[in-house]
Amino acid sequence: MNVLVTGGCGFIGSNLVKYLRKQRPQWKIVNFDKLTYAGNLENLKDLEGDAQHVFVKGDVNNREHVEHVLRQHGIEAVMHLAAESHVDRSILGPEAFTVTNVLGTQVLLEASRAVGLKRFLMVSTDEVYGSLGPTGAFTEESPLQPSSPYSASKTAADLLALAYAHTFGLDVVVTRCSNNYGRYQFPEKLIPLMVVNCLHDKPLPVYGDGAQIRDWLHVEDHCSALLLALERGKKGQTYNIGGGAERKNIDIVKGILKRTGKPETLIKYVQDRPGHDRRYAIDPTKTKRELGWAPAHTFEQGLDDTVTWYLENRTWWERVTSGAYRQYFDSQYKQRLSSAA
Fold first, then answer.
1. Which of 86, 90, 170, 278 has the smallest number of CB atoms closer than 10 Å to its CB?
2. pTM of the model as a whole
3. Higher-confidence position of 49 and 84
4. Residue extents of the structural domains in the chain
C-alpha cells in the first residue's frame, strides 16, 4: 500500500514513519512535511537511502500540490498528523492554528475526495474533550468541550473529517490520543523541557500548583494503535488511545529530577496558563476491543528510556533549539519565570 503521512518529520510523525517502515516494509511511505521548527529531517536520518520512504516538502494548505502528490504516488491512504500543536503558542497566536489545523485539514480532505482515497486517518487529541473532574475518563461519546485555541482547532478538524465521511462517503477514521512522550519530542513540551533544563541547571517552571493530571502514552504505543486504526478501524468511527498512566505534572517533574540527579530546589512554580485544563484521562476500551490494541510500555519504563535518550542525544536537542526558535524559546521561558506564583 502507498501511504501519505502528513507531518512525518515531527515528533509523532517521525516515530510513526519509522514504525511503519519496520512493521510494513513492503509499503511505500510518502512523508509530506512543511519543515516548520518542530519538523526535522534529522529525525529520520536512519532512513536515508530507503527507497520505500519518500520525503516531499509541502504545505497542507496548498491544494494543488497536495492533490498532485496524491496522484503522483498513487496514494491509497492518508495518515494526517500535520498540525500546530502547542497550547501555549496557540494562546499567543491563535491564527496559525486555525489556518493549519482547520483549513489545512479541509484542503487535505477535499484533495483526498478528488482522487478517490481508500482511507483517511485523522490523528487528533484528547484535548478536544476539555477538562475532567477528579474521577471518570473520556470515552468516544464524551461531549466535545475544547478549552484552548489549539484544542478548538483540533475539534473543528475532527468534525470536518467526520462530516466528509457522512456527507461525501469518504472513508474517515478519527483517533484521539492522550499525552505522548518519547524520543524526538521538541523541547517545548513538559518532559523534554524539564530534562533539558536539568542538564543546564536552569529553573524548572511548573504551572500553578503542578497538580494538573495527564494520561501519558508512549509514542511507540501510539504508533501501534494508529496502524491498527488504519487497517482495522471502521468507517466514520472514533477511537480513543490512552496509556493508562495518569500522573500529576509535578510528579513527572520530580521523577525527571531524580533520574538526572538534580535537586528539587530547581522547581519554580509560575502563574498558571489561562484556561488550563485540570485533568485528562482516556478510556481506550473501544480501541482495545475493536482493534485488539494494548500499550506495551509501562510509564516508569518509558520515562527511563526517554530521559536516557535525551541524555545521550544532546547534540540533537541543542541543534533543533538553535537559531530563530532559540530566541522565541528563551523569551517564553523567561516570561514564565517572571510570573512566579
1. 278
2. 0.93
3. 49
4. 2-180+218-241
